[in-house]
Amino acid sequence: MERAKIILKSGKDQSVRRFHPWIFSGAVKKIIGNPAEGDIVEVFDNKETFLASGHYQPSSIAVRILSFERVEIDRSFLKRKIEEALKLRQSIGLVDNASTEIFRLINAEGDSLPGLIADYYKGVVVLQIHSAGMFRLRQEISEIILETLGGRAIAVFDKSESTIPFMSGIKAVNGFISGFSEPLICSENGFRFKIDWESGQKTGFYIDQRENRRLLQDFTENRCVLNMFGYTGGFSVYAMKNAELVHTVDSSQTAIETACENIRLNYGDDKRHTAFTADAFEFLADIKNKYDLIILDPPAFAKHTGSLPNALQGYKRLNMKAIEQIRPGGIIFTFSCSQVVSRENFRKSVFAAAANTGRKVRILHQLSQPPDHPVNIYHPEGEYLKGLVLHVE
Ligand code: SAH
Questions:
Q1: Cα 234 to ligand 1 centre (Å)
Q2: Where are the domains of the chain?
Q3: In terms of Cα–Cα distance, which of 212, 176, 210 is closest to 193?
Q4: Which listed residue, of 158, 227, 235, 271, carries a Cα 20 to 30 Å from 66's Cα?
């Protein structure tokens, strides 16, 4: 089949030549043919030299690149990529691991499959698709994933209702593409969590915090822990192992209910834990001297560069509240998951927060996303999660 051709403006081929996987609409000089949303198109420079193939979308990201070589983008292409993704997770010990049954199998650009996220929960794979092209292939992708995982997977759930670009003509409906499963109880580093992909946020769990939750354990002994933006209690469950008390705060009532269920799953009816359905900023208004370990893991404050200044102010205000009020010798795990907030900008916000309080603050660790969320070095935007472990005197 003849593919439509995307011809770039002079000079706009530079980023493609450096393997950046997105073509912005502003770089396009002309389109030869009449590609539909989600079609595979070929990208050429101004002199009509082939550069790449990818999924077309009539939006600000016009093409998401699948290959920089002139290869057929077909079933065996997808199969190769998915096999490579599995192989990486195997090489880091995440597959067939009895103490961790949760991992990210496909991380979009990080696995050279832009627009496609696939998370694995003990046999159930949850897809979250961000492009029309990948959405059109979801049936095939689901089949290939089941085939590649062999007996390890029994069902594929599509959770793309809220992630398919709203400009697109596609109406996605969440549901199983293959098989079926009730919500599951899965292990992560030996701790147990109830995972409900259907009613939960994202694909059901914030898998990206696995290594940071593990690190938290080094700091919890005999501490009074405040887990802000706690969702279903990920950090709380780890903290409960050694802490004196743990308070979990989230504005979502359902998240808090699941957090309590997760604490019960691991510790039974343990009085050291209390959960609060509350707004973070209100809760933080008066916590003076109550806590000596605080986790701040807010939702992305900036979704696009336009909201960056407000987001940075938000991080500053939030961190200031914690730094001001934490007990001397306290530890703060503070995060940003906004893609548009760079590591440097985040650190500057926390610096500004610390400077305002006048307390002595040191950085003990710099945190990131785990290796099943790999970052394509040519796509630095893929490094979205950044965190700091602070020691406050
Ligand atoms: N740390 C969690 C993930 C946090 S995601 C984990 O490891 O699983 C961010 C959470 O912040 C969501 O659960 C969301 O419900 C909550 N949230 C968003 N706005 C909030 C607010 N203003 N106050 C309190 N919680 C909020």
A1: 11
A2: 5-67, 75-185, 208-392
A3: 210
A4: 158
